Amino acid sequence: MSQRKKKERDFHNLSTPMNITFNLIAGIFAILCVFPFLFVVIISLTDEGTLAKNGYRLIPEQWSLGAYRYVFEMGDTLLRSYGVTIFVTVVGTIISLLFMSFYAYAISRKSFRYRNFFSFFAFFTMLFNGGLVPTYIIVTQFMGLKDTIWALILPLAVNAFYIMILRTFYATSVPEAIIESGKIDGAGEFRIFIKLVPPLSLPGLATIGLFSTLGYWNDWFNALLYIDNPNLVPLQSMLMRIETSLQFILQNAQNSSLGLEAMRSIPQDTSRMAMVVLATLPIIFAYPFFQRYFIQGLTIGAVKE
Amino acid sequence: MKMVGEFFRNIFKNRMMLLMVLPGALWFLFFSYLPMLGTVIAFKEYRFDRDGFWASIVNSKWVGWQNFKFLFSTNDAFIITRNTLLYNIVFIFLGLVFSVLLAVILSEITNKRLSKIYQTGMFLPYFLSWVIVGYFTFSFLSSDRGLLNGLFNSLGIPPVQWYSESKYWPLILVLVYLWKAVGYNSVVYLASIMGIDRSLYEAAMIDGASKIQQIRAITLPLLKPIITIMTLLAIGKIFYADFGLFYQVPRNSGTLYGVTNVIDTYVYRGLKTTGEIGMSAAAGLYQSVVGFTLVMASNYIVRKYDKDNALF
């Protein structure tokens, strides 16, 4: 019986040599995608002395946990940056979900008189933007956000594309009839939104929430633009800064004895790679569980009203 | 008078909804529309005034098209436009070929569990920031410790100073881009392959079509709409480069600017490093205007081709 079933499946599917080829291609590409991360993990577990002698190797001569010990002893910067990133990610995601879901819900409702105007108001920003220089000048000189935590949160809070996805989602998954019945029961618009809408649109909200979370966690650009205060440097940006200051010191090392002194305060190669690993680990553990939402995001975005 | 009354009655009637759009609308006002007005900076010699933002804008000297003249009289304008366009064209083309190929391969693999595992692996780069990817690249290309030079050393090939030899960078940037983008895009294409009616394949099999014939006659033609749309959307954005790729991966190395400088990095450096605010604003406006034209044009083409999939 099982013999026959197997034969049947073979008939319907790929021939064995082709199946093997396909598996090889997909498998090799998948390994290539993961390999750099594994390699950085290996470097971070290499003994610093061996590294200076042999360079980065796939199988180090001597393993060591020294880098991680160093990172945890010098923990201040890393911990602070972790704190900044977590705060920005949590607060940012909440704010952006509130702003965007309110906006999207309102423009999805046919009873809203100004829905076309506000749809266009959001949509036009996808077509044209003022560019970096005016944005920078307005954020720093008009809003005065330079070197505040809000410079890391607000610029990413709203995204017209996500609003369009959410609007489509509300328009298709929240039937007008439910809202009408809520109204007949005497609930106001806001109450309806709070009580009835979230359960119906949870998958859409989850998708957008995850895109937001990822955006905040991985953001370094806003810190590059707006943050000088070392206490407000998020994780990704901290990793960048170590690199830049290292290059600066290397260039000036010959000129001064100060260079050598400063050199010691900068984490060594292994420790920097350990920080990269520690900054990436949460994502590595989380994303396999959430990946379907990221695929879903594109498929619901493709559906138009 | 009556109309005014009507207007306020309508506002009152829609007050709840208006309240709901308020935070988002304010955000768009401050982060999108004010910067659009701020593009006048491109026509000014911008000086920061102590009386604040409005005073700075008003008091800065009006210079007309001078910033643009300066920009286009240098070689930079040509280099950044060329780099932005060429890289994006290569990215769009190779990205499409590899993503679709991989999606077809993933969809045909017999063992669905294995296929899921491959997908999870390929998806990883999408979730990493360019800073992290920059570190990854460095672990391969570092001139004294990197994996590649180590390999060269053991093969007796002289080591390469990767971060100062610009001739390798077009290839490196394309490879890094593909590494980061192909997995994610192929999973998106895979989702639409999975949406294809299975009975089409069964019918083809009864007619004795081979797997390759099925792919050519069913899968690819049915993917054509989404391929067209994704490509046209990408063409609409062809004037915008991925800042992270061109800034983080080459580690901002000055000797590489000839092949790594794109419009976005040029604007950034003008603003933050060299302080040529007027010229940098001019480059930004040039990007926005051409970008806008391209989005409109590509959308017009999508509309003609397939109305349902047009952006607007």
UniProtKB/TrEMBL annotation, chain B:
CDD domains: TM_PBP2
Domain ABC transmembrane type-1: start-end pairs: 81-298
Bilayer topology annotation: Multi-pass membrane protein
Compartments in which it is found: Cell membrane
Chief localization: membrane
Segments passing through the bilayer: 85-105, 117-138, 168-196, 217-240, 277-302
Swiss-Prot/TrEMBL keywords: Cell membrane, Membrane, Transmembrane, Transmembrane helix, Transport
Family of the protein in this entry: Belongs to the binding-protein-dependent transport system permease family.
Full protein name: Sugar ABC transporter permease
